[in-house]
């Protein structure tokens, strides 16, 4: 079937209806799902809508074109075939359209609910190899253009995705800005899947309620592989969604490489592949290590930089929405080889954009860690429709992380053993009611050691903790103010030593 010029406008109208980006529409009554977005209307590699779509069209004088996107308007388009489409398909779960192809079935129309689409099997592996080869050639060509002083089509903005700790490693080169999908932080989905299936697991380095973390090898380089348990599937979806739709590359945010859902040993495994940091979490690091005041400041400042980057909204085509973490704690902060921190675990994060005033909470039933919950969360007074409320709970938790760092800092030869916040008041795994009594009813905060007053840096940290723990959430410091104050402390009489 070919379309003459008179029908082209009709085709584009129908395609726009079926492939409308859900996140640009008013919220649908149906739960929103994340879909792969590859069509002329896309703003990034994914979109959100009431359902996902794949549409196959043949325009006048052209080959078949396959478009992917989101639907949020007329569901009748999914039930009956628009006559100007060669074929189309709708599905209703997150990312369900990114591994579906209609291109090989150009005369038959797949059913919507009862018939399965043509899923790429061996063909996907071949396409993956072709994609990687094309990506490599494109990468070389773009580098040559840059060397001749030409401007990248993406703009010379903030998409600098070098894995800086790996220097000129293959991984660092692979994550160069030329390999990105535009506005997001991730590689193209097909490339992500190829990378994931080239990773060999070496050793398990951590376990928790979420699942396991392994150290893996990809072409001789260490990567971290977080394998989610089946009951925490929504956290995997949420992290995958955020990393692939938001510009998150930052020295103090854990570097994302790939995400993959795969079948291994007759069971489905959900993988999230990130940079590997051998020191582990800040929680682990503080168990083993005592700190000099300047190292304590270095850890605190770098963590604050990561939190400030999450909380800020960056406007423009290369921007990002504001993000609140909602589960900030020392176990979710990693220590890099240069002894700076980076923030990890975005499975509970919420996003907000001022332009649309849309608060994206996700649909994860998991709650945060009780020990780090702010009083307004524990007494269920938090305004869940107000994005600022979530940022204020992050600041409360950040104050507790500062307290953990300060306890392990040496002042006049004195240092204390590591303890979690409220260790003397609640058991190891406190209940919601136990934390509520301590924090809301008794209005307790962790005891700040008197010895911190003897050091100008640590006395500054102590005052900052108090201002993170105000009962009135709106009176607490902002992440940006914390970051600026810590940087000012680091520029005091004794400059911090750079530790390698």
UniProtKB/TrEMBL annotation:
EC number(s) on file: 2.7.11.30
Membrane-spanning residues: 118-138
Source organism superkingdom: Eukaryota
Domain spans labelled GS: 169-198
Membrane topology, as annotated: Single-pass type I membrane protein
One example GO MF annotation: BMP receptor activity
Biological process terms in GO annotation: angiogenesis; blood vessel remodeling; dorsal aorta morphogenesis; endocardial cushion morphogenesis; endothelial tube morphogenesis; in utero embryonic development; lymphangiogenesis; lymphatic endothelial cell differentiation
Compartment(s) of residence: Cell membrane
Keywords from the UniProt entry: Angiogenesis, ATP-binding, Cell membrane, Disulfide bond, Glycoprotein, Kinase, Magnesium, Manganese, Membrane, Metal-binding, Nucleotide-binding, Phosphoprotein, Receptor, Serine/threonine-protein kinase, Signal, Transferase, Transmembrane, Transmembrane helix
A Pfam match: TGF_beta_GS
Cofactors required: Mn(2+); Mg(2+)
Residues the record lists as binding ATP: 226
Signal peptide: 1-24
Enzymatic class: transferase
GO cellular component: BMP receptor complex; cell surface
Catalytic activity: L-seryl-[receptor-protein] + ATP = O-phospho-L-seryl-[receptor-protein] + ADP + H(+); L-threonyl-[receptor-protein] + ATP = O-phospho-L-threonyl-[receptor-protein] + ADP + H(+)
InterPro entries assigned to the protein according to its UniProt record, in alphabetical order: GS_dom, Kinase-like_dom_sf, Prot_kinase_dom, Protein_kinase_ATP_BS, Ser-Thr/Tyr_kinase_cat_dom, Ser/Thr_kinase_AS, Snake_toxin-like_sf, TGFB_receptor
Domain Protein kinase residues, every copy: 199-500
This protein's record includes keyword Signal: yes
Role according to the record: Type I receptor for TGF-beta family ligands BMP9/GDF2 and BMP10 and important regulator of normal blood vessel development. On ligand binding, forms a receptor complex consisting of two type II and two type I transmembrane serine/threonine kinases. Type II receptors phosphorylate and activate type I receptors which autophosphorylate, then bind and activate SMAD transcriptional regulators. May bind activin as well.
Subunit structure, as described in the record: Interacts with TSC22D1/TSC-22.
Family: Belongs to the protein kinase superfamily. TKL Ser/Thr protein kinase family. TGFB receptor subfamily.
Protein's UniProt name: Activin receptor type-1-like
Organism of derivation: Jaculus jaculus
